[in-house]
Design brief:
It is built from twelve helices and 41 strands. The strands form eight sheets. Strands 7, 8, 9, 10, 12, 13, 15, 16, 20 and 21 form a ten-stranded antiparallel beta sheet that branches. Helix 6 runs parallel beside helix 7, helix 8 runs parallel beside helix 9 and helix 9 packs parallel to helix 10. The chain starts with a strand and ends with a strand. 51% of the residues are buried. It binds (2R,3S,4R,5S)-2-(hydroxymethyl)piperidine-3,4,5-triol.
Amino acid sequence: MLFPPTTRTGPCTRIELATRDDGFPVVFWAGLDDGRDVSGNAFPLLPNGPGMPLLGEHAHRLYTRPHLRGHRVVAGADVVATGQGWSTRFVQDSLDLSDTRLTVTASDADAGLELVAEFESLAGGALRGRCTVSNTAPGSYLVTGLEVVLPVADHHVEALDFTGRHERERTPQRHSVTDGLWLRESRGGRPGLGAATMVVLGTPNFSPTQGEVLGVHVAWSGDSILRVERDAATGATVGGGELLQPGEVCLAQGESYATPWVFFAAADDGLDGLAAVWHAYQRSLDAHPGTQPVVLNVWEAVYFDHDLDRLRGIADRAARVGVERFVLDDGWFRHRRDDTAGLGDWWVDEEVWPDGLTPLVDHVRSLGLEFGLWFEPEMVNPDSDLYRSHPDWILSSGPRVPLLQRNQLVLDLSRPEVRDYLFERVSAILSAHPVDYVKWDHNRDLLEAGTARRFGAPAVHEQTVGFYTLLDALRAAHPDIAWESCASGGGRVDLGVLERVQRVWTSDMTDALARQQIQRWTTQLLAPEYVGAHVSSRTSHTTGRTLPLDFRAATALFGSFGIEWDLMTASDEELDRLADWVARHRRFRGLLHSGRVVRPDSSDPAVQLHGVVAADRRQALVAHVQLDESAHNRGVAVRVPGLDPAATYRLTWEGPADPTAVSASSPLPLEGPTQGREVLGQSLATHGFWMPRRRPETVTLVHLESAGAP
Ligand code: DGJ
């Protein structure tokens, strides 16, 4: 049996199932499929052969990590019995298959449990699965873990995932699939700056341009697990779920626990093919932003130093260069003169803003710009009125106050009164002003995150649900507002939050050279329109490196373009040049925010190539990024995959405006013979066009536009 069934045409991520002797479904294959129905023929189910039951259990001689882990807790008169029900052997009760949904229900009467396993086939071709366990017997059932796991094709022997830190999110790391359990856990109550983001398994040396791959992602904004496992008796499997802390999920009779959705996406054309599947799914979401306005965020311009006249001046200059949305960042609310105080006191600061935010908002809007505002609702500073009146509202494992991080603690969003307070305060500000956009920040990891409601027991699961509940309530109350997910930069990037927000702040690293890497790998999951990318000041506040304006702007161009630079310090010439880049972004954003991301191979380690090919393949914009000095003078061939092989494309120099900025020597092919040349799509895919060596820290943009069939 195939899911999705072959009525879904075209390539998509499929699973193929057979039934075990007792009728329970076993998935014996997961991957990209074009709908050939080979059910029942390809692989017999052998004890050590391919395949993994929809729920892997110890009772069936699987010595790998059980997918459901838990046990009963039964309190008698003077004794508490634990441990029963730990080894389940579910039998299938029903199986429902439709074009887009597979639902299997199963039960274990001895353990007093029911299980529902669901899979959905999604727009773009990905698949997602989740499991729900219910306690049907008297007493409690303590869930310690439940994961959605699928088998991995035997020839997928390499793995990729990501790690990182503040200002360096999503650094790729590679390893082989070996025997044993490989586990990535996020335990900070948010995916985190070092989030795995996804694990990708594939054929040897898979890369952006080649290889069969299967990517797995847990759509959850709290603690999560990604797992790959293989042992001497069992083929490799991959999956994930929520990381549950001790005692977090204890089901009374009649209660259920559902895992987050775990996403699986397969491609046979490398990591770019995989990215295209994720992007297509995001573009199908109700919350998808469409294309994005150009943003100016004042954080790096003024930090906490808010001054109405200065901000009005920045807004004037923002309007002059073509910005469409002005965002007032941290520092506008009571007592918030630095990061030691004020979080939780969501009233406009009366000293700094004696007439409230209205004079600034009116000014911004009179310039024709949207207005955006920063919040960090989940946090509280000990030095705040909120903490002084409700010290018991924080997450903690008991009377001990958790260690501070950025001088702040985390509010307990599992408590309705805390959510009510935050809803009322945030909503009051949003209702008092015409706010178009909220940047929702989260600047620390959760630590000892227990709730007083349950005497300090862990509450990360409830906190994550509480975050979604609060955000959803605010979205419903303010349906026209666009929301951005920020967590010290890109610490909350996942498909759970993406159902709710329109943008992500990718990283606090605003140095364009470092940003090239962060954005390149963030688009492995996120479509470019989500990837907040800002032009910052000449000399980076984060690295101290000075980079040319063209390089900074061309780096921001492909994402959700914005400015972080204090425009009061920009010269007229710089403002004009920046206005050109804003105009260029506005001209190309329809393409950039709907097309397919490509990251062609570069033979030169000093050069990185990336671009976007239009969905209808009629045009593409390609960036040659000269990161560093090349060791030779050969230049590189820029091959562009994904064009119409039969169409011819006209190549046009798109920037920087001054070719001498990227090269001291001449004549150069692109400015000379290549400019205006018409080349067949097939030739561009196989041979590419030649790009000479450039000066380091330069981006050269080439626009390819279909001139029709030859
Ligand atoms: C962290 C964010 O990533 C920054 O952009 C800025 O909003 C600061 N927080 C404000 O505190």
